[in-house]
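To: structure subgroup
Subject: Chain for Friday's discussion

All,

I'm putting the inputs and outputs inline so they're searchable in the archive.
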Amino acid sequence: MLATTLKAGESAEYTPGKTRNLYLVPAAGASRSTACGSTPATAVAIRNEARLKITALEDSELVLVDAA
């Protein structure tokens, strides 16, 4: 499990291993990722992403779960 706080316009990247399942949970703010956009209370399940880039559209707090 990973967590980050991003200011509006900042980005974070994550490279999951093959066959990994990701679950992106925005606790606050709004963000856009290479997989999709998200807002608070909108969790996103992500699969088959070789590299995930998340960009904050506004100040955001994010949790990323990496599971088998």
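Points worth raising on Friday:
The mean pLDDT is 90.
Residues 9 and 37 are 14 Å apart (CA to CA).

D.
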